[in-house]
Amino acid sequence: MNLFEAVLTRRSIRAFRDITPEKTLIDDIIDASRWTPSWGNTQPWNVTVVQGEQLRRFKEESTKLAVSGAPSEPDVSMPEKWPPRYLERYRDVGRRTLSSLSIERGDREGRNAFYLQMAELFGAPVLVVVTIGRELSLEYAMLDAGAFIQTLCLLAHEKGIGSCIMAAAVRYPGLMRELFNMSKNERIVAGVALGYRDEENPVNTFERVRVDKDEIVRWVE
């Protein structure tokens, strides 16, 4: 698989197989991701890799919090409002995801069941938590952390490991700090679910959409 293929074929995986990748494989992917470019080579990211019993406990406790209706308190605020064209893209992928699972618009029970799967990381056996120091400029550090996450996901894809970048994974940072012994001095940015994808699940095969390049590209000569 060349780089173009990796970029064009990587997708967010929302159903994982119950097989944990070798620790050495995940470690090699993260090791290579260190070469992600960053502002002034500051490399502001830190990584916590969780699997096994601690990940099971996290999924269980996250699900309990979600069911109880506990409010999300992420270290990085989620956007509360989108301009119309971005909101439509967001809604479109939501419709495609739920439709692939035959969950209709009025099926509240089906939707709630899917949202609880998010708390369980869609069954992923590995969670990579990316953090940045609180003393850093959030905008630039987030840019660098995003580049690191993209590199991680593309390298994982090249090795046959599926990924899903999940804001939902970091809704309860207090729980993460308690279970994973993470410092309060680190701002929890995002979680990346990793594992082998379930090839037969339609949620991993529905058609993906991107806007036409003419809508986002402007040439100046």
Fold and architecture overview:
This protein has 221 residues and is of the alpha+beta class. The chain has a domain of 153 residues: NADH Oxidase (3-Layer(aba) Sandwich), CATH 3.40.109. Helix content is 42%, strand content 14%. It has a 4-stranded antiparallel sheet. Helix 2 packs across helix 6 and helix 3 packs antiparallel against helix 7. The longest helix is centred in the last third of the chain and has 21 residues. The two termini are 34 Å apart. The mean pLDDT is 96.
Shape: globular
Q: Give the ordered list of helices and strands.
A: HHEHHHEHEHE
| CA(first)-CA(last) distance | 34 Å
The tally of strands reads 4
Q: Any guess at the CATH architecture of one domain? A: 3-Layer(aba) Sandwich
Instruction: Specify the CATH class of one domain.
Output: Alpha Beta
Taking all Cα atoms into account, the compactness measure Rg is: 18 Å
